[in-house]
Amino acid sequence: MRHWVLVMVENVIETEKLTKFYGERCAVYRVNLRVPKGVVYGFLGPNGAGKSTTISMLVGCLRPSYGKVRIFGLDVFKHRIEVMSRVGYLPEKPAAYRNMRLEEFLEYMGRLEGLTRKEAREKARELLEFVGLGRLAVKKVGTLSAGERQRLGFAQALIGDPELLILDEPTSNLDPVARFEILSKIRLLASKKGVTTLISSHVIPEVGRVSDYVGIINNGSLIAQGPISDLIAQEEDEYLVRVSDPERLATRLLERDYILEARFEGKDGIRLRVDVNNAHKLWVELPEVLAEEKLALYGFKPVGDPLERLFLRKVGVA
Questions:
Q1: Percentages helix, strand, coil for the chain, rounded to the nearest 5?
Q2: Lowest-confidence pick of 14-18, 77-81, 139-143, 199-203
Q3: Does the pLDDT at position 1 exceed 80?
Q4: 47, 141, 223, 306: which sits with the fewest CB atoms below 10 Å from its CB?
Q5: Residue 150 — φ and ψ, nearest 5°?
Q6: Is the CATH code 3.40.50.20 the one for domain 235-314?
Q7: Nearest to 31 by CA among 224, 197, 211
Q8: Where are the alpha helices (DSSP H) in the chain?
Q9: Does residue 191 contact residue 181 with C-beta atoms inside 8 Å?
Q10: DSSP 8-state code for residue 93
Q11: What is the C-alpha to C-alpha distance for residues 77 and 60, in angstroms, rounded to an integer?
């Protein structure tokens, strides 16, 4: 008889000094991940930063050279069957039996999860609809496009109703519409079902759109981690304003302490760097200044993204 170990935890994923060497090359060095229960955690890093190696250790596919991995408070390598029965995993390059029909493949995976044949068939149909592949249920896996295979891999990760999703580059090979759909599904699962999710990606805007927490890894080391709102609090917002007289507008706006810098762009543009904690004041006061100075507004838009600027600064690009 199998006896599960019950452990109460606040962090669903915890690593302690997680390290991986390949010969003399260090791929991951002393990484201490903390993924709280119920959040979407964006795991960001350039290509080759150590994201996939870290994830391989999280799911027990790769043993660390040093350090510990705990999921649900349990050592992954001592309790792998128990841990992984509660985890849905999408690898960077999902694999499936090419000669099986989509519905047949997911039904087979459901049976491996312990579902009855009827339960597995119903779950397979439900998930194919959920990921947008319902119309392709009877197609062979080998006939799918790269993006369709990615969707199928996402469905496979969900087959056991996991408490934790670990998704390695889940939107690779997807077109913009499909990327938006999958990210929306990830956010929905977190909001409605409380599914904790770790997303590995190098595409910063999409991670910022759905994540609550973020960790940034570069050259194998975790260089930033925490709630997105806290991490970007020290960043600035930037806006491009186009007006009839940019010099007069710049003079007035620089009187405000939340305007950190104003640079002219072209004949009618000003790029404003704004304290992110007081950016709302710009939205209120800019119309007032324009009216007082009788200036015509030609355009107003945010420039860049605070999370992206944080990322670039942390990895030494900005």
A1: 40, 30, 30
A2: 199-203
A3: no
A4: 47
A5: -65, -40
A6: no
A7: 224
A8: 51-58, 80-84, 102-112, 117-130, 146-158, 176-193, 204-210, 228-231, 246-253, 279-293, 306-314
A9: no
A10: S
A11: 6
Domain ranges of the chain: 11-227, 235-314
Average pLDDT value over all residues in the chain? 90
Written as six digits, the tokens of 127 are 């998930």
**Residues 218-245 as b or e (16 or more Cβ within 10 Å = b):** bbbebebbeebeebbeebbbbbbbbbee
Residue 3 or residue 124, greater confidence:
124
Task: Give whole-number Cα distances, 85 to 71, 162, 164, in Å.
Answer: 11, 8, 10
Q: How many Cβ atoms sit within 10 Å of the Cβ of residue 41?
A: 25
Task: Tell me the pLDDT band of 129, cut-offs 50, 70 and 90.
Answer: very high
- Considering only 83-92, 120-129, 176-185, which range has the smallest mean pLDDT? 176-185
Residue percentage of the chain with pLDDT more than 90? 69
Buried b or exposed e, range 20-37, using 16+ CB within 10 angstroms: beeeeebbbbebebbbee
What angle is formed at CA 100 by the lines to CA 94 and CA 102, rounded to 5 degrees? 65
CATH topology of domain 11-227: Rossmann fold (3.40.50)
Q: How far apart are CA 262 and CA 311, in angstroms?
A: 23
Instruction: Please tell me whether residue 164 adopts helix, strand or coil conformation.
Output: strand
pLDDT reading at 279 higher than 80: no
Cβ atoms 165, 186 nearer than 8 A? yes
* CA gap 62, 53 in Å, rounded: 8
Let me know: does 92 contact 150? Beta carbons within 8 Å: no
Going by their DSSP bridges, the two strands 164-168 and 87-90 should be labelled as: parallel
pTM attached to this predicted model: 0.79
